[in-house]
Design brief:
3 strands; PX Domain; 150 residues; 6 helices; 3-stranded antiparallel β-sheet; globular; alpha+beta; single chain; transport; PX_dom
């Protein structure tokens, strides 16, 4: 089974404002039966990765969850360099996560990678309180064409 996950195309949102942040494109291509959609593409920001890691830790029991790149406030070097280092760290994090059978079974991970749902919507969906099941949410996103790489 093949699972290719790429974190790419970092973009600064709200540039120049106090609440600017960087989000990253997460591209997933797989033939794994674990995934509903075989190709997807979503944008997520660092704090969403932090949330995902926390959720995976809660549900993984004794299985160690890979580390995220640090949240550096004192970074020496250019902003571009920092963003690129973080992008690489986020990619390594996801590559390790999708190789772990226990973590791969967490539906939050699938919604994170294969839907545009916000974190509260992911939580509601996983707990059966959303308008769709996990599979429906992923298929809805995939069918809306935004989930496919053009």
């Amino acid at each position: 089974e093949l699972i290719t996950v790429r974190v790419q195309d970092p973009r600064v949102q709200n540039k120049g404002s106090w609440n600017s942040y960087v989000d990253y494109k997460i591209f997933l291509h797989t033939n794994s039966k674990a995934f509903t959609a075989k190709t997807s593409c979503v944008r997520r920001r660092y704090r969403e990765f932090v949330w995902l890691r926390r959720q995976l830790q809660k549900n993984a029991g004794l299985v160690p969850v890979p580390e995220l790149p640090g949240k550096s406030t004192f970074f020496v070097g250019s902003t571009d360099e920092f963003i690129e280092k973080r992008r690489q760290g986020l990619q390594q994090f996801l590559e390790k996560v999708v190789q772990n059978v226990v973590l791969l079974s967490d539906s939050r991970l699938h919604l994170f990678l294969q839907s545009k749902l916000s974190l509260p919507e992911i939580e509601a969906c996983v707990q059966g309180q959303g308008p769709q099941t996990v599979t429906e949410a992923i298929l809805h996103y995939a069918m809306s064409n935004r989930g496919w790489v053009q």
